[in-house]
Write a structure and sequence with these properties.
With about 400 residues, the chain is an alpha/beta fold. Helices cover about 30% and strands about 15% of the residues. Strands 4-5-6-9-10-11-12-13 form an 8-stranded parallel beta barrel, surrounded by 5 helices. A 3-stranded antiparallel β-sheet has the order 1-3-2. The protein is globular and about 75 Å long. The two termini are about 30 Å apart. The N terminus is likely disordered. The structure holds 2-acetamido-2-deoxy-beta-D-glucopyranose (NAG) (4 copies). The site of one 2-acetamido-2-deoxy-beta-D-glucopyranose (NAG) has 9 residues, from helix 7. Belongs to the glycosyl hydrolase 5 (cellulase A) family. One of its GO terms (molecular function) is cellulase activity.
């Protein structure tokens, strides 16, 4: 809207001028006016809101044409101190002063393989899909290195061919391995994430021996790739913390028994592994301090959203300080237990309060030194206009969250 208003202003003052006022046009295809801005403003190339300017006929063009159309060149005088442009990352030292430990693993979730979870086995391209290599390239190009790849246990271990003890579906497994190899081939880390909430084929997984054997079978597929990270289970819930702990310990043992000894393992707790309830209602903090790994390379994966119910379904954040507040108790617990954390999912809306809240969360994490990594939820080709989508080129979180809240913490 800002841009439309400024265009009107620019048209009214169309006579040649020595310099252009703030928000006025100062360059672009077919532009012949002054390219010099008033004092205090800088001429910036921008695509912001450009699609709003397209005639409605253009908006009906096929996708590829519209993508071309929104690349129409346009430059605008912006206040030199403007921080809202999507063109360059916000500086990090002003946001988060002091000594910080950068994340070893920083990136995004890449959804797709877990979509359509009510249709088993489902059809590739219709019920589920795999992440796009171009999305991986985009984030690697910006300096991110870690991608969490959700998939479904019912698709890799079909109930119809022996269930969790049966052979893998080679078609689905090969789809998973293809994207994992693509990521690790680029030097990145691929987090292999059975996105099942500890429920398989409608029933809660309860057998530690079945879970251990399943992980031994899966880890064997990736044994030689040290850039694979094993995320034992996404968001168990409605299971006692102690039961989830036993299953996670069995999973660690299963991975290591496959000979996969170099890789990081992530364990998750009950109550959707929420950081905000880790030390309180979930009961996780009472049991997870005892996790044992013969290779001493395990971290506690937690998730945190910043909307009122912590579900990641509303773009409204509780406050601009809620990110740091919700992580504080978990951070202290990690420090006291000499454990490392990994924030496998964080997400919030593209608005000022949420951006400040995400910055506060990531700042606290880096200042504490106990968090190995963080991943935004989520990229992936099928999110559409979901407010947390960070899928390039124009997922909702690309314009502001990426440059202002994530890139400063690279
Ligand atoms: C294996 O996966 C493919 C691809 O999703 C699917 O078409 C096929 O039906 C699956 N096989 C079984 C036994 O589930
Ligand atoms: C942190 O834990 C204390 C009790 O241990 C609890 O009273 C407080 O509400 C927790 N903080 C948050 C933000 O959940
Ligand atoms: C991204 O751009 C495409 C093409 O212009 C458009 O159809 C789509 O709605 C946009 N997505 C978002 C989240 O803005
Ligand atoms: C917050 C969020 O997006 N959660 C999603 C986690 O992944 C599952 C499976 O894709 C979705 O159903 C949730 O909505």
């Amino acid at each position: 809207m800002k841009l439309l208003l400024s265009l009107a202003v620019a048209l009214v003052s169309a006579a040649p001028a020595l310099s252009v006022a703030v928000w006025g046009q100062c360059g672009g295809i077919g532009y012949t006016g002054s390219t010099v801005c008033d004092a205090g403003a800088t001429c910036v190339e921008t695509n912001e809101c450009t699609s709003l300017l397209l005639p409605s006929s253009l908006r009906l063009l096929p996708l590829a044409h519209r993508l071309f159309a929104i690349r129409i060149d346009y430059s605008q005088c912006q206040p030199s101190s403007a921080t809202t442009t999507a063109t360059s990352p916000t500086s990090s030292s002003s946001l988060c002063p002091g000594t910080r430990t950068k994340f070893s693993y920083f990136g995004v979730n890449e959804s797709g393989g877990e979509f359509g979870n009510t249709v088993i086995p489902g059809e590739l391209g219709k019920d589920y899909t795999w992440p796009s290599p171009s999305s991986i390239d985009y984030f690697v190009g910006k300096g991110f290195n870690t991608f969490r790849i959700p998939f479904l246990m019912e698709r890799i271990s079909p109930p119809s061919t022996g269930g969790l003890g049966g052979p893998f579906n080679q078609t689905y497994l090969s789809g998973l391995k293809t994207i994992v190899s693509y990521i690790t081939g680029k030097g990145g880390y691929a987090v292999v994430d059975p996105h099942n909430f500890m429920i398989y084929n409608g029933a809660t997984i309860s057998s530690t021996s079945t879970f251990q054997a399943w992980w031994k079978q899966l880890a064997a597929e990736f044994v030689s790739d040290s850039h694979v990270i094993f995320d034992l289970q996404n968001e168990p819930h409605d299971i006692p913390a102690a039961t989830v702990f036993s299953l996670m310990q069995a999973g660690v043992n299963g991975v290591r028994s496959a000979g996969a000894t170099s890789q990081l393992i992530l364990v998750e707790g009950t109550s959707y592994t929420g950081a905000w309830t880790w030390t309180t209602s979930s009961g996780n903090s009472a049991v997870f301090g005892a996790i044992k790994d013969p290779n001493n390379n395990v971290a506690i994966q937690m998730h945190q959203y910043l909307d009122s119910d912590g579900s990641g379904t509303s773009p409204t954040c509780v406050s601009s300080t809620i990110g740091a507040e919700r992580l504080q108790n978990a951070t202290t617990w990690l420090q006291q237990n000499n454990l490392k954390g990994f924030l496998g999912e964080i997400g919030a809306g593209s608005n000022a309060a949420c951006i400040t809240a995400v910055q506060g969360a990531l700042c606290e994490m880096q200042q504490s030194g106990v968090w190995l990594g963080a991943l935004w939820w989520a990229a992936g080709p099928w999110w559409g206009d979901y407010y947390q989508s960070i899928e390039p080129p124009n997922g909702t979180a690309i314009a502001q969250i990426l440059p202002q809240a994530l890139e400063p913490f690279l």
